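Let's practice the habit of predicting before peeking. Look at the sequence and jot down your guess about where helices and strands might fall. Then scroll down.
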Amino acid sequence: LKDFPFLQKEHLLNSFSKLIQTDPNFLRSAYLSPSGGTGNTTGGMAQLYFVTDAAENRAHRARFASMLSQLGVITDEDIVVNLHGGGIMYRNQELTGYLTDLAGGTELSVGFSAPDTAVLEAVHRFRPNTLASTSSRMLQFAQHVSTLPENERVVIRKIIYTSEPLLPSREKYLQSILGVETISSIYASAEFGPCFASPPARMGEKTTAYREFIFDKNVVVVEVVAEDGTVIADSLAMGPSDGWGQVGEIVITSLCRFRNPLVRYQTGDIGSLQPFHGTNESAKDYLWLHLYGRSTAKSVTISGEYFDVKELENHVFNKPEYGVLDWQ
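Done guessing? Here is the structure:
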């Protein structure tokens, strides 16, 4: 694996854009997912659409959903209000619903843009126990519920958040308003798909500076890379003392995507690896990923959206018409 160079988003963007324009068969039986990491098309910044073989995508999702069920993230006892977004090629709502179905849960596909009154109506009618959305959308719904009389409030025992961190202060707020008992998370991207999940934890139990995720070593290879490019941890070769806990950039190789391989992709996220000690048969294939957040050298957040630094350099900072003398 180390014979391959590291892969950046810019290379994927250029390669996929060229193939979509020049190869008439490239999009045959394909699944397209947009990445939010390069910003939108405003000001000339391009959107990456990762193209995955449709059959490979379904098989990957089925395996990940099985892990979600085993970990208790989504089970056949869960009725899930899905408040993720969709539309304009963005497929988070569809992905969450598909995984819920495969894991045995029941999905209420309400959506990000639904007014809080409509969300509340669905909760009253179907009595779900789980809410899945970005942390900011959860907070918006909880703020609406907080304005209601006590006899009109609802209880959501379980939350599954994605995309954005959920701060401890927000955890406490959700617990106080919605009666939340357990919290889980899913970490995915357009490039490598859904691969990482945190099992349900009691609210307030986790006070670390990182988020904990479990992944299957047969689905994805995770390397932890230092600033100088040295690999300091590798999920393929992890032994009793081989780099556990060392922090660096997360580099991903997919073991599910063969038609359009993803090899040594630099995610721009910072994390470390730890052993997983479980009791079920699949535990031997699992490891922990401790995720600390984004590398500020690779991306910045503006109004809640990730922008690739290289894209900003090419389309803003290095353009004479904008007159940018310096930036940091």
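How did you do? The chain has a mean pLDDT of 88.
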